[in-house]
Every structure is written in structure tokens, then in C-alpha cells.
From TrEMBL:
<dbReference type="GO" id="GO:0000139">
    <property type="term" value="C:Golgi membrane"/>
</dbReference>
<keyword id="KW-0472">Membrane</keyword>
<feature type="transmembrane region" description="Helical">
    <location>
        <begin position="186"/>
        <end position="207"/>
    </location>
</feature>
<feature type="transmembrane region" description="Helical">
    <location>
        <begin position="219"/>
        <end position="242"/>
    </location>
</feature>
<comment type="similarity">
    <text>Belongs to the YIP1 family.</text>
</comment>
<feature type="compositionally biased region" description="Polar residues">
    <location>
        <begin position="33"/>
        <end position="42"/>
    </location>
</feature>
<feature type="transmembrane region" description="Helical">
    <location>
        <begin position="112"/>
        <end position="138"/>
    </location>
</feature>
<dbReference type="GO" id="GO:0031267">
    <property type="term" value="F:small GTPase binding"/>
</dbReference>
<feature type="region of interest" description="Disordered">
    <location>
        <begin position="33"/>
        <end position="59"/>
    </location>
</feature>
<dbReference type="Pfam" id="PF04893">
    <property type="entry name" value="Yip1"/>
</dbReference>
<feature type="domain" description="Yip1">
    <location>
        <begin position="95"/>
        <end position="235"/>
    </location>
</feature>
<feature type="transmembrane region" description="Helical">
    <location>
        <begin position="145"/>
        <end position="166"/>
    </location>
</feature>
<dbReference type="InterPro" id="IPR006977">
    <property type="entry name" value="Yip1_dom"/>
</dbReference>
<protein>
    <recommendedName>
        <fullName>Protein YIP</fullName>
    </recommendedName>
</protein>
<feature type="compositionally biased region" description="Low complexity">
    <location>
        <begin position="49"/>
        <end position="59"/>
    </location>
</feature>
<keyword id="KW-0812">Transmembrane</keyword>
<dbReference type="GO" id="GO:0016192">
    <property type="term" value="P:vesicle-mediated transport"/>
</dbReference>
Length: 256
């Protein structure tokens, strides 16, 4: 009996001393697992995400070679609503165009396709105006497709070469302009020439001169004023000048 009693006492002592050992070691499993789960499920601060996206937009093309397609693809990443808004704001400029409209994110999509649209509209509308003037005069009209290549030369030189020259000249005098901003100024400003080309179909020469007159009263720099004037004269003389005389009109010097 004494041996069985001693065995029972030993088992009770072992069962009793185990919780004491756990408490002395500080192993509280429930509290430890709860704190670990909170650390794992804790989300990062939400302010980090907008900062990363903003820095991505401001550093477009960074880290990509300038001769790669990926470098220039970032400047064509605009949607239709942005392009339409910039076209409308260019015809009625209010405020800072670079900060308010471009939002310091210039693109190349708008200037390229607007210049292309101007080339198409100038050539088509001038051809229609010439055929209409010939029809009124009772003569036949021959379409001159060399004007298309000339329109490509004039419009693209004005849209991209003039900004490059202005950027280089201001760079020479110590200014730090953005070449893309200047290209956007010139590219989106060509939007007005699309409706002007349609209005120049009107078969009245004084109306054509009135519509083709460049709105340059707000431009201060003489070089920009000169460029606008030359561009206007080239469009008027090369595309909207016709010398058709009516078939019923008597020739000068004819005998009575």
C-alpha cells in the first residue's frame, strides 16, 4: 500500500509542477499568437501609395534609353478627354496652360495628330475651295497634289522646328524651359486652323484674308510674331489664292 501511495503522489506532483514551469518560463501562447497576428495583418500607411504613383508620373521615361520605343511611348500615354480639353483650352487660353491644363505632364500624341489633321484639312479644304472657285468662273480645275507634300513640310516645320529653335535660343540666354512644353504650346495652338480651313472654303477673297489672319496680338516676342505671320502668309498664298476669271466676263482690251 505504501508503494502505491507513493506512485500516486509522484503523478500528482508532476501534473502540478508542469503549469508552474510554464508560468515561470513566461510562455503565454494565447497572448503571443494574438500579438503576432496583429503585426502580420497591419497594413502599410496609405500615404505611401499616392506618393509612389505621383513620382512615377513625374519621372516618365526615366531609366529608359532615349533611342528606345519605350522611352517615347510614355509621352503618348493620354486619353481622349485630356486631348480634347487641351485642344479647347488652346483656342481659349485662360490661366497657366502648362500648370492648369497640361498639369506638368506634356505629351506628344496631341501635337503630332493635330499637326497631321491640319495638313489633311488644309489640303482638302484648299482643293474644295479651288474647285468651287473654278466652278463659279466656269472653268475646269486641276488638283495639285504637290500641295500635300508642301503642307506636310510647312506644318511640321512650324509645329516642331519653331519650338526647337525657341528652346535653343532661350537655353542660350540662360533660361531653363521645357522643350516638351513649348512643343505642346505650338502643337495644340494649331487646333484653330482646322475650323479656319473649313471657313476658307467660302468663295470670297476678303473673307479668306480675315479668317487666315493670325491672332498674335498677345504675343510679345518679335520672333514668335514673325513666325506666325510667315506661317499665315504661306497658308494664304500657297493654298487659298485663285485667279479664275468668269467665262462670260469680257477680256481686257477687247474691241467694241
Amino acid at each position: 500500500m505504501s508503494n502505491k501511495y507513493n506512485v500516486i503522489v509522484d503523478m500528482d506532483d508532476a501534473a502540478y509542477t508542469q503549469p508552474a514551469t510554464i508560468e515561470s518560463d513566461g510562455l503565454e501562447f494565447q497572448d503571443f499568437s494574438t500579438s503576432t497576428g496583429m503585426n502580420k495583418s497591419q497594413a502599410p500607411p496609405p500615404t505611401l501609395l499616392p506618393e509612389s504613383s505621383t513620382s512615377t508620373n513625374n519621372n516618365r521615361g526615366v531609366g529608359k534609353p532615349i533611342w528606345s520605343v519605350e522611352y517615347y511611348a510614355t509621352f503618348f500615354d493620354v486619353d481622349t478627354s485630356q486631348v480634347i480639353e487641351r485642344c479647347l483650352k488652346s483656342m481659349y487660353p485662360v490661366g497657366d496652360f502648362a500648370a492648369d491644363t497640361l498639369q506638368n505632364q506634356p505629351d506628344l500624341y496631341g501635337p503630332f495628330w493635330i499637326a497631321t489633321s491640319v495638313v489633311f484639312s488644309v489640303f482638302v479644304c484648299s482643293s474644295l475651295a479651288g474647285s468651287l472657285a473654278a466652278y463659279i468662273a466656269g472653268q475646269s480645275h486641276v488638283y495639285d497634289f504637290t500641295l500635300l507634300s508642301f503642307a506636310v513640310f510647312v506644318v511640321y516645320m512650324y509645329a516642331f522646328l519653331c519650338p526647337a529653335l525657341i528652346w535653343a535660343s532661350t537655353k542660350y540666354f540662360g533660361c531653363q524651359p521645357s522643350l516638351l512644353d513649348i512643343i505642346n504650346y505650338y502643337g495644340y495652338s494649331l487646333t484653330i486652323w482646322i475650323p479656319v480651313s473649313l471657313l476658307c472654303i467660302i468663295p470670297y477673297d476678303y473673307a479668306r484674308w480675315a479668317f487666315v489672319d493670325a491672332k498674335t496680338s498677345r504675343i510679345i516676342l518679335l520672333a514668335i510674331l514673325f513666325a506666325h505671320t510667315i506661317f499665315t502668309l504661306v497658308l494664304k498664298i500657297a493654298f487659298y489664292s485663285y485667279d479664275y476669271t468668269s467665262a462670260t466676263q469680257p477680256k481686257s482690251g477687247a474691241s467694241n
